[in-house]
Amino acid sequence: MRYFLKKTNIKKGEYLQIYISEYKRDVGSRNRCFKSIGYISEIKDKGIKDPVAYYQAQVKKMNEELEEKESSEKAKKIGNQSPKRYAGYIVLKGIANSLTFFEKAVRALSNERQFQYDVYNLMMALVYARATFPASKKKTHEDIIPLLFEKVDESSYSQILSCCEYIGSEYDKFISYLTTSIKKTYGINSSETYFDCTNFYFEIDKEDEFKKKGPSKENRNDPIVGMGLLLDKNQIPIGMKLYPGNESEKPKIREVISSLKKENNITGRTIQVADKGLNCARNIYEAINKGDGYIFSKSLKKMSDRDIEWFKGLDISNWDIVYEKDSNGKNIEKYRYYTFTKGFNYSFKNDLGLNVTFTANEKRIITYNPKLRMKKILEINKMVDKARNLCLYQAKKDEFGESSKFVNFVTDSGKKARVEIDEEAIAEARMFAGYNMLVTSETQLSDRTVYNIYHNLWRIEQTFKMMKSYLDARPVFVSSLNTIKGHFLICYIGVVLERLLEFNVLGSSSFSFEKIMDFIHDFSLVRMDSKNYINLLTSNDEVGEFLEKHLSPEITNYIITPANISNFLKLKLNKRLDGFESV
């Protein structure tokens, strides 16, 4: 861009103008009038003897100033804060804005301590930051929270840790407040509850009273913390329990369900759904004693020798078959099942060491899944091949890992221990591959209904996956007991908000949690000028397109204004979007 003086001959004489010459890509050079000066004769009458020389000098000065400005802009250094801002978390904030009881309860509880910062605002900023860009608490404080649109009055990293420590010390109360708020806003259905456990490892080797070495889900040898998670019938998390990593998972289902019912005044009958790891006589006894029901899976391999012989004699060709259609519309076998109902005897030792025996009337459903069998056979063959290779050079026991189930470690008197392949164990594993048994107190339910209820457990596995992958809940880097609990509470709240968005607002069949989390990560803005932002969300984002149609058209605007942002932050998502009303 440059200025030049233009002299034009017209009827009244020579006329002077200052023009500006600009170059635009795909258009080329274009000249336009910047300023009209006047006729030379009239300018002379005002006392300027040589108007052309006079204004040429002015044009030269204007070009020099322009060059100086351009040089200054080219040499301009980057600022101390990124021009990028994260906006995808607004959908989670819309859920949180609807949970008014939760906010009021947290503020009431934290006001007793007279913190120098707003506990609720900082806690939720940590939740939004983890959902948007999971990072360490220090990086979250320095690089992530400043790029949110949240008004957080924290001013130091120590306040982040203080907040985590405080909410961790009261994490059971916070979960209770959150569940109560969910019940008031969206409702919960505890007629069926799904429970499972997992664990999280730490990047340290030292144990303490909470971080204990135990059976890690990742087969690591680091200290771990256990987590039990409870979902209602609609797959919404309504309870969480943290416990030392070396403790058994089995008592946790009793503790969580009992405390949940007490805190939320739930008096109706609950069907407890869990996998074989939580199937034990005491859990069955406690469920029956409290008027509840259960659906557990049971390992066929743990049956008595007599029952195994009975199982071998079953003619699978007479079982009921359930079909599904393949990609070509052809019916193929999904699974087949065999069912029977009778009384089964159980026994366990109570807390006083006394033996308790009882009989439970149960329906048991043995299922066979051909796809599962193929998968299991491949896994077994892989482990057997590993075991055979390790046996060739008599590897140490800890080298076998999971394949150790297919070998025997034999020690002869006075001789070195040797390793032998356990052919019986291999044959047994292959025989049971693809089979499973469901055990339920709900004898009046149809076999397929029991099967379908039990297989909703994959949702809780998906919830753990979300927490571990998209929210990076592990490895855990904080160390104090309450700060650890605060860290997991932040992850739990993030999961709850996403699940409410997915199932109660968008609809469970609309989008997977992966697509929702990708939208939260991808919907970001870059500052264009002192007020407005450029939207970096792409037009092929399915969640963004849906929200544009059913929530706010401005979400896909190329330019996002302060008014747009203000409206985003005020959204309340308390109902399905097909009936959404802006609040």
From TrEMBL:
<dbReference type="InterPro" id="IPR047654">
    <property type="entry name" value="IS1634_transpos"/>
</dbReference>
<dbReference type="GO" id="GO:0004803">
    <property type="term" value="F:transposase activity"/>
</dbReference>
<dbReference type="GO" id="GO:0006313">
    <property type="term" value="P:DNA transposition"/>
</dbReference>
<dbReference type="InterPro" id="IPR002559">
    <property type="entry name" value="Transposase_11"/>
</dbReference>
<protein>
    <submittedName>
        <fullName>IS1634 family transposase</fullName>
    </submittedName>
</protein>
<dbReference type="Pfam" id="PF01609">
    <property type="entry name" value="DDE_Tnp_1"/>
</dbReference>
<dbReference type="GO" id="GO:0003677">
    <property type="term" value="F:DNA binding"/>
</dbReference>
<feature type="domain" description="Transposase IS4-like">
    <location>
        <begin position="207"/>
        <end position="493"/>
    </location>
</feature>
<dbReference type="InterPro" id="IPR012337">
    <property type="entry name" value="RNaseH-like_sf"/>
</dbReference>
